[in-house]
Amino acid sequence: MSLKKFYKGIAPAQLLAFSTSSSGATLPVTMDRCEKELGVSEEVSSFVLPLGATINMDGTALYQAIAAVFIAQTLGMDLSLGAQSTIVLTAVLASIGTAAVPGAGIITLVIILEAIGVQVLGWL
Q: 42 with 34: CB under 8 angstroms?
């Protein structure tokens, strides 16, 4: 399959993804386009696409890890190797379990901050 055909086939799904910032909201359009335009079987698309939309949140994991380190350093905390490992592990696990909706990563950032001892309750 040529790149031109591929990008033409997924263009509506990409447009919806960029406008809504939600991988979950694009699933119906993405599944439809993959099946009708790209020739992917329904069995494959109905398994792979929802799984990918849920667990492929690399940006969320990176954001949470960087934000947690930034907030801890801003508060004058020295992060031990154990705390850094906790940030990485918790960010990866939280990104897998985070709902595919915009802004859900902020909620899980609170979990990461609490895990390394940052008191978030005083900020609210």
A: no
